[in-house]
Amino acid sequence: MSQPWTVVVPVKRLTAAKSRLRGGVPGVPHEELALALAADTLDAVRACPGVAEVRVVTDDPRVRAMARLAGARVLPDPPQAGLNAAFRQGAAGAGGWVAGLTADLPALRVAELAAALDAVRAGPAGVRRFVSDAPGTGTVLLAAPPGVPLDPRFGPDSAVAHAASGARPLAGDWPSLRRDVDTADDLVAAARLGLGPRTAALAAGCLTG
Ligand SMILES: Nc1nc2c(ncn2[C@@H]2O[C@H](COP(=O)(O)OP(=O)(O)OP(=O)(O)O)[C@@H](O)[C@H]2O)c(=O)[nH]1
Ligand SMILES: C=C(OP(=O)(O)O)C(=O)O
């Protein structure tokens, strides 16, 4: 069997996470919602064939507990260093195939993640690959083959930044993987695809649109 994947999932402190979503879903406590988005994302990653290890990088005690229950290994955030440093921390020493995934994919289908990871393996040797988000400007997944540093460039316009750094986009039809949730409208779009159980239990009845 070919080498399995390590998937790195950074999660911001819940008090600061998903600030663009804050107040966007009336009646739903914001930190519970941010936690549910991450929990549903992690459940899909854990269930994905070929994923041997999930590493959650966080400083948040509730996220830490949730991630451990979900079977992930938890690493601390490098102090004040931000998202790309969190990805680097998580990827350090992984050895084999490594993917970085955002934690805001509550509609994520296991089969779509598996298909994306398979497409990375089937592609050109030695090349980093990424999956852009639904609008095409951001990144939801960045993957590196064994021996190639992940070299994350997440942040504003990260699709362009990843391409400029030599990573190549993956073109698959993976709506649930590309549906990251930054705003209330994004959550409505994710609900149309089908939310994971944690997010659905909290928010499904509170969404309009
Ligand atoms: N560990 C860690 N994770 C981060 C950090 N910044 C962002 N993330 C995570 O990276 C992923 C993508 O980030 P964003 O989509 O910008 O999420 P966010 O920063 O919570 O959202 P906004 O506050 O609205 O920008 C999410 O899973 C965040 O939880 C960080 O400094 N440390
Ligand atoms: C973190 C990213 O963006 P957003 O916050 O828009 O999801 C990104 O796409 O790299």
TrEMBL record:
Catalytically driven reaction(s): phosphoenolpyruvate + GTP + H(+) = enolpyruvoyl-2-diphospho-5'-guanosine + diphosphate
Annotated ranges, domain MobA-like NTP transferase: 37-128
GO molecular function, one term: phospholactate guanylyltransferase activity
Gene3D superfamilies reported for this sequence: Spore Coat Polysaccharide Biosynthesis Protein SpsA, Chain A
Pfam family, one: NTP_transf_3
One record GO biological process: F420-0 metabolic process
Residues bound to phosphoenolpyruvate: 139, 155, 158
EC number, UniProt record: 2.7.7.105
HAMAP family according to UniProt: CofC
Name the record gives this protein: Phosphoenolpyruvate guanylyltransferase
Organism: Micromonospora zingiberis
Gene encoding the protein: cofC
